[in-house]
Write a structure and sequence with these properties.
Distance between the termini: 25 Å
Number of strands: 23
Strand content: 15-25%
Oligomer: single chain
Structural class: alpha+beta
Strand order of the largest sheet: 22-19-17-18-16-15-23
Radius of gyration: 35 Å
């Protein structure tokens, strides 16, 4: 998850393809450390974003416009003065560093043709955007770095621009076998770290990928390498660099459980359990990746209150259920007390005065039984005592039989809401969940707001390999609507067995039979969007919709069925096509 030399190289190629020869039409500075350039080239308009934000430095071509301040900052005004209407003539990446240098040709006040350079350094908290003349003298920068801030390099107007220190690294284009043997393999560290601390632009992510492709554990010590392993490692490094030189980039995002994990410009085979989603450009990757991360973070922040309410209610209901089940188990003794009472009524005349036990024949089992007695009471009084205990436990059993069922249904309902919260990706999803919590009394509805919210979100939509449309409910209301309003009798319904999860509906045209591959993919969806999605395998029930019935007086989305099929399936939906 880093803009390393590889990603910058990919960005350089994209910028060269789209921006070289283009004219800078507009320049904006929407943030203190961010610039946006509107560039016209080959009858197309491009928007280039440059950000030197300390926590998230970025470069990419974007389609999103930001609000700009009414009064442009000084650095923006300076750039407008010098290079607005200028032409981008070259874009370079020195030494595979995380730096892009834009050379811009423009006319000065006298009408003479001049060149300026705009340099963006993507280096974490040290990121900067620097504007220089053709002799590398700094005209200004978006961040001023004085000697008091950095003893290594000053970035101030009037100073000569120099590249950041290489920290003992060399360009990957200069790496040969002798460097591999004498430097990387001799470092007293892990193999992975030996690579990325020796070569510029190589991140830990790429170093680990090179090791993985060479079938070497990157966490092993460099001293453990033998000649064959070194040869494989060096061979993979060379193959990696050949792809860079030829510009063979494959921009992609790695997803795990529908959440973005990493992005890169090569396919990362070291993440076999992740879904690889490829894109046309690295700019699209960056814009999508950070948009997805931001959306997930924002939703989690906004759902924090709902999460707390659900977890508290679920914990309370679960404890209540455990107590009720313990009490219900205690009532198992009731039949024993009834039998004691009946046997004492039958054989009590055999009991001796002040006896502590009575041994007699249990005519229900034809075996002898020993009945404990209270020596201070007669046999008849002991019988009454046992009948009293029996009647009390019987009343408790009858009461708890319905109470435990209600509490179990409450736990299942809360678990289903909790599962829905885990897959919520839009604010509309949270609104629907909040509405359900209010409807069942977990959240108090505000006075004057007695109307139900109008639902806007839609179920998830997938298409199987065989072309069948598959729909996944994101909450109980959607499950209810999908199953009992949207689905027709011959459509197939899938659900994780005996656990909270989404309803999956597969639409089947009349008279058609569903292919085996679609059954499997629908099962994967039901397993993935369930409480068991982290399990290696999940049992999934499936049945045609016409055999389903709604639970009488039950919660939304709860159904009854008696005859069904089942399958054990891995909750992996990496290769199932999703419709946006």
């Amino acid at each position: 998850m880093a803009l390393d030399g590889l990603v910058i190289s990919n960005l350089k190629k994209d910028c060269i393809d789209h921006l070289t020869g283009g004219r800078i039409y507009k320049i904006y500075q929407p943030e203190n450390d961010e610039l946006t350039f509107i560039i016209k080239n080959n009858r197309s308009t491009y928007r280039l974003l440059l950000s030197a934000n300390a926590s998230l430095p970025l470069i990419y071509l974007t389609t999103t416009a930001k609000n700009n301040p009414i009064q442009a900052p000084n650095f923006c005004m300076l750039l407008r003065k010098h290079i607005q209407n200028g032409r981008i003539v070259a874009i370079e990446q020195p030494g595979f560093e995380r730096i892009l240098v834009f050379t811009i040709e423009h006319l000065n006040e006298l009408g003479d043709l001049c060149q300026k350079k705009l340099i963006i350094e993507i280096m974490g908290k040290h990121s900067n955007i620097i504007f220089t003349d053709e002799n590398n003298q700094i005209i200004d920068s978006i961040k001023h770095i004085s000697a008091q801030i950095s003893s290594v390099r000053e970035v101030l107007p009037g100073r000569i621009y120099t590249f950041p220190p290489s920290q003992g690294k060399i360009s990957p284009f200069d790496v040969d076998l002798s460097f591999f043997l004498e430097t990387i393999c001799q470092k007293p560290t892990t193999i992975c770290k030996g690579i990325y601390t020796s070569v510029t632009g190589i991140s830990p992510l790429i170093a680990n990928e090179i090791c993985y492709r060479a079938e070497i554990d990157g966490s092993d010590a460099t001293s453990s390498l033998n000649e064959e392993q070194i040869a494989r490692l060096y061979g993979e490094f060379i193959r990696f660099m050949e792809c860079i030189i030829k510009g063979h980039f494959e921009p992609n995002i790695l997803l795990h459980k529908e959440e973005p994990v990493e992005f890169s410009s090569i396919i990362l085979s070291s993440y076999p359990n992740c879904q690889i989603r490829q894109y046309d450009s690295i700019s699209e990757v960056l814009q999508t990746y950070y948009s997805m991360k931001d959306k997930i973070t924002r939703i989690r922040q906004k759902s924090a209150d709902l999460r707390k309410i659900i977890n508290t209610s679920l914990e309370r209901a679960s404890k209540k259920y455990d107590i009720q089940m313990k009490q219900l188990k205690d009532t198992d003794k009731r039949e024993k007390y009834r039998i004691y009472g009946e046997l004492l009524n039958t054989y009590g005349y055999n009991a001796e005065p002040e006896a502590k036990t009575l041994t007699c024949l249990n005519y229900y089992t034809n075996e002898e039984i020993t009945i404990p007695l209270d020596p201070t009471k007669s046999a008849l009084e002991n019988a009454k005592k046992y009948f009293a205990r029996y009647n009390k436990l019987k009343r408790t059993y009858e009461a708890l039989s319905s109470l435990t069922l209600e509490t179990k249904q409450e736990v299942e309902h809360l678990e289903s809401i909790n599962n829905s919260l885990q897959i919520a990706l839009e604010e509309e999803d949270l609104i629907e969940l909040k509405e359900e919590l209010m409807e069942f009394g977990y959240i108090k509805r505000r006075k004057g707001n007695q109307k139900k919210s109008k639902f806007k979100s839609k179920p998830l939509h997938y298409i199987s390999s065989d072309g069948y449309h598959m729909y996944v409910g994101k909450n109980n209301y959607q499950n209810e609507t999908l199953t009992f309003q949207f689905a027709t009798g011959n459509d197939w319904w899938f659900h994780a067995k005996q656990m909270a999860g989404s309803h999956v509906i597969v639409k089947v045209p009349h008279g058609e039979e569903l292919p085996d591959q679609t059954f499997e993919e629908a099962g994967r969806l039901a397993a993935f969007y369930s409480k068991g999605k982290d399990n290696p395998k999940v049992e999934v029930d499936y049945i045609q919709k016409k055999h389903l019935k709604k639970t009488p007086g039950g919660k939304p989305g709860f159904v009854i069925y008696h005859t069904n099929y089942s399958l054990m399936i891995e909750p992996n939906i990496n290769y199932i096509k999703k419709v946006d």
